Amino acid sequence: MVGVDLETGLRALLVVSVVSAAAPFVCALLARFRVPQVVVLIIGGVLIGPEVFGFAEQDSIALVANVGLGFLFLLAGYELELEHFRERSGRLATAGWLVSAVVSIAVTGLLAASGFVHAFVPVALALTTTALGTLLPILRDNHMLEGPLGRFIMPAGAVGEFFPIVGIAVFLGSKGRLYGLLSLVVMCVVALALAWLPRLARLDRVGAISRQQEHATSQTTLRLTVMLLFGLLVFASDFGLDVVLGAFLAGVVLRRWAPGDVEALEGKLDAVGYGFFIPVFFVSSGMGLDLGSIAEAPARLVVFFLLLLAVRGLPALVLYRRDLAARERVQMTLLTATSLPLLVALSEVGLASGEMLPENAAALVGAGVLSVMVFPGLAVALNRPAAAPRPPAASILPPPQPDH
């Protein structure tokens, strides 16, 4: 039985790796349309999944996909500069999320009153999320982290991930709100202690060994990083918290904890994460998309898709009017409205509690997939450099002839 399961898992990983390897070439062929690789990976997952060709099952790669989700949030936390939250960009990010939360509560209340949704809290939280981890490779590949937009989108994306995770821990924890809140506090204290550990303890010898072996076959810093990631993932899971919280905090800790060549470590994490684990997560997300439920009630997907844009994205048009040009504010609107990983988690929580309608769970995840496929691509298209201005008409006239 174990041999059969192993063979099934290996075959599934082979099919997923084919999709992953083909994605950059597909994007290159579609370069004029600026299609993000994430979109190709998700569509590839839909095609190889049980809803279309049935080449692989999502359950057979669940563990690897969850590790990919962990790496996604680890790198998002690693890229986050906490100093932003002492600046105007951090205050605007927090204000933007609070505005989205208030609007989301009002909108979800209306939907619940009309009978459109039953799971009030999961849906309300879902409409306030931003997939910073999903956006990160797109932003980096298109050099959009540089300049004013990058300075504002990173804090906005961070609060769009962290605050909904806090909401999941407090309001949707299986052991009650008080336990969820205490678990969250303990988790943050542990992360803070890990961040300060190298400063408080005499670990000079350990640091020296790590630096000496970081580029050798030992790969000490990379192994320590993976240990930190899995440690916080397990810790979060044991306390009934969403594992993405552990991964996100691991990235924040790692930025202050890693010894040795930090830039080289970042390159190695990119190679391990984006080279294998993270693509598996996106392909798995496509494989798990319930196309049947979406086809039966397509209007629900459209409603959630538009609400993601309106509730989470539109406040950016007003809040950043003094700081960003109109084009960049539209980009902020599109990018902050992009969501996927937390929608999957919230849908699973809603289905497990029996409160969320199956068609709403499928539509919510489908709206997240659609947001990833549409919004970042539009934002990238807006990022194209403006065409060189045409010379004024006077400059193309022939020079005046001298009088004789």
UniProtKB/TrEMBL annotation:
> Which GO-annotated molecular functions does the record name?
antiporter activity
Q: Where in the cell is it found?
A: Membrane
Query: Which membrane topology term applies here?
Result: Multi-pass membrane protein
Biological process terms in GO annotation: proton transmembrane transport
Q: Name one Pfam family in it.
A: Na_H_Exchanger
One of the record's GO cellular component terms: membrane
InterPro entries in the record? Cation/H_exchanger_TM, Na+/solute_symporter_sf
Q: What is its main location?
A: membrane
- Sequence ranges assigned to domain Cation/H+ exchanger transmembrane in this UniProt record: 25-376
Q: What UniProt keywords are attached to this protein's entry?
A: Antiport, Ion transport, Membrane, Transmembrane, Transmembrane helix, Transport
List residues traversing the bilayer: 12-31, 38-55, 61-80, 92-113, 152-172, 178-199, 271-289, 301-320, 332-354, 360-382
Q: Name the PANTHER family on file.
A: NA(+)_H(+) ANTIPORTER YJBQ-RELATED, NAPA-TYPE SODIUM/HYDROGEN ANTIPORTER
Family to which the UniProt record says this protein belongs: Belongs to the monovalent cation:proton antiporter 2 (CPA2) transporter (TC 2.A.37) family.
Q: What is this protein called?
A: Sodium:proton exchanger
The record lists the lineage as: Bacteria, Bacillati, Actinomycetota, Actinomycetes, Propionibacteriales
